[in-house]
Amino acid sequence: MTEVPDAASPPARRLLLVHAHPDDETIGNGATMARYAAEGALVTLVTCTLGEEGEVIPPELAHLAADRDDTLGEHRIGELAAAMAELGVTDHRFLGGPGRYRDSGMMGVAQNDNPGCLWRADLDEAAGHLADVILEVRPQVLVTYDANGGYGHPDHIQAHRIAMRGYELAAGRGHRVDRVFENCMPRSVVQAGFDALAAAGRSFPFEGIARVDDVPGVVDDEQVTVAVDGAAYAGHKTAAMRAHASQIAVDGPFFALSNDLGQPFFAVEYYHQVHGTPPPQPLPAGDLFAGLTDGPAADGAQGEPR
Ligand SMILES: [Zn+2]
Question: Where does this protein hold Zn(2+) (predicted)?
Answer without folding.
Answer: 21, 24, 156
